[in-house]
């Protein structure tokens, strides 16, 4: 196999370090699968990236996370260059990155989300729109960057000095008690349901990417109907948003009041982490798919919409 693959990694979002890990791991796996791989560390200079993509690769493996790399921007550049690239296209990437818009779209596919509202920080300082506890989220970030749970009795300001760097718009969402679930989708099938148990606090950025801060239980120990509902909801979200390749959808499962409880969709990640701690590779392995085979499948299903 002599197919030439350029792996994009790094970028300049808040998730740069995670992207570096994802890109390096994916590049190694692709070499093991027999591809001719070049790693391209992406910075802010667009001309540098365009130059690095010469000679022209057969496929661009997009391992960027967060803004610019995951929100349709780099996808647009690759479309202009008429290059095949991995993961979702421009529109699906942009829609999924906007948490509020993604929730509206998947709702039309029958998938339930927590109630929430988008406000400016000024509006939120003036009046809290829903009762506590609630969750503050950036509208367009991944990896739980900037996410905070505001509980009854908290006296800290909603936005401390220098703590919020994710724009003026804030998604305020009701807090759902219970369990954290995530489901990977590979093409036209859901892989498995993983329960994530954070050892301290909630499953924030630190817990996601620091060894020992969270346990992944795959398959999750759930009632059969909840497992099936999560698998179906993840696939419905993937299709409704127009995604392709591999995605991962996150859920809260509230089993605190009754059985079998209620499932709530949170978001879809169009470029899931591909690190040693990432859930999609774990779910693929559970299904008998090795990491090199997973990365090879992603490459072979790359496309260009132009």
Q: How do you describe this structure in short?
A:
The protein is built from 10 helices and 12 strands. The protein has helices at residues 16-32, 46-52, 73-80, 90-97, 99-107, 121-126, 205-209, 224-240, 279-286, 291-300, and strands at 4-10, 36-42, 59-62, 116-120, 134-138, 148-150, 169-174, 179-186, 189-198, 214-217, 246-254, 262-269. It has a 5-stranded antiparallel sheet.
Structure write-up:
This protein has helices at residues 16-32, 46-52, 73-80, 90-97, 99-107, 121-126, 205-209, 224-240, 279-286, 291-300, and strands at residues 4-10, 36-42, 59-62, 116-120, 134-138, 148-150, 169-174, 179-186, 189-198, 214-217, 246-254, 262-269. It is of the alpha+beta class. The protein folds into three domains: 4-86, Rossmann fold; 96-112 and 177-270, 2-Layer Sandwich (D-amino Acid Aminotransferase, Chain A, domain 1), CATH 3.30.470.20; 116-174, Dna Ligase, domain 1. The protein has a five-stranded antiparallel sheet. It has a four-stranded antiparallel sheet with strand order 4-7-5-6. Helix 1 (16-32) links the parallel strand 1 and strand 2 (36-42). Helix 1 (16-32) packs across helix 10 (291-300). It is globular, with a radius of gyration of 19 Å.
The CATH topology of the largest domain comes to D-amino Acid Aminotransferase, Chain A, domain 1
Percent range for β-strand residues: 15-25%
SSE order, one letter for each helix or strand? EHEHEHHHEHEEEEEHEHEEHH
Distance separating the two termini: 26 Å
Number of domains: 3
Summarize the amount of helix as a percent range.
25-40%
* Structural class designation: alpha+beta
Return the CATH architecture of the largest domain: 2-Layer Sandwich
Radius of gyration: 19 Å
Reported for the largest beta sheet, the result is: 5 strands, antiparallel
Identify the CATH homologous superfamily of the largest domain: ATP-grasp fold, B domain
Extract low-pLDDT stretches. none
Instruction: Assign the CATH class of the largest domain.
Output: Alpha Beta
Please state the overall shape, judged from the principal axes of the Cα atoms. globular
Strand elements, count: 12
**Arithmetic mean pLDDT:** 90
Structure annotation, total helices: 10
């Amino acid at each position: 196999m002599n197919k030439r693959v350029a792996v994009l990694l790094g970028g300049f979002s808040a998730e740069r370090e995670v992207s570096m890990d994802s890109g390096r791991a994916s590049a190694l796996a692709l070499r093991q699968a027999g591809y001719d791989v070049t790693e391209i560390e992406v910075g802010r200079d667009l001309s540098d990236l365009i130059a690095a993509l010469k000679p022209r690769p057969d496929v661009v493996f997009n391992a960027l996370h967060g803004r610019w790399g995951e929100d349709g921007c780099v996808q647009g550049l690759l479309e202009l260059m008429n290059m095949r690239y991995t993961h979702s296209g421009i529109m699906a990437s942009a829609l999924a990155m906007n948490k509020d818009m993604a929730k509206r779209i998947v709702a039309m596919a029958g998938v339930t989300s927590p109630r929430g509202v988008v406000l400016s920080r000024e509006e939120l300082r003036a009046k809290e729109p829903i009762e506590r506890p609630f969750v503050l989220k950036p509208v367009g970030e991944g990896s739980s960057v900037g996410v905070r749970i505001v509980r009854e009795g908290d006296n800290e300001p909603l936005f401390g000095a220098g703590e919020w760097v994710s724009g003026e718009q804030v998604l305020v969402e009701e807090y759902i008690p219970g369990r954290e679930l995530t489901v990977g989708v590979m093409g036209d099938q859901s892989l498995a349901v993983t329960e994530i148990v954070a050892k301290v606090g909630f499953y924030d950025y630190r817990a996601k990417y620091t060894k020992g801060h969270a346990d992944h239980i795959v398959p999750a120990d759930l009632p059969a109907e909840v497992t099936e509902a999560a698998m179906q909801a993840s696939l419905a979200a993937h299709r409704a948003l127009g995604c392709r390749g591999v995605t991962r959808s996150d859920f809260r499962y509230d089993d605190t009041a009754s059985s079998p409880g209620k499932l709530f969709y949170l978001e879809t990640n169009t470029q899931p982490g591909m690190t040693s701690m990432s859930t999609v590779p774990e779910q693929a392995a559970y299904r008998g798919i090795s990491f090199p085979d997973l990365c090879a499948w992603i490459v072979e299903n790359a496309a260009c919409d132009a």
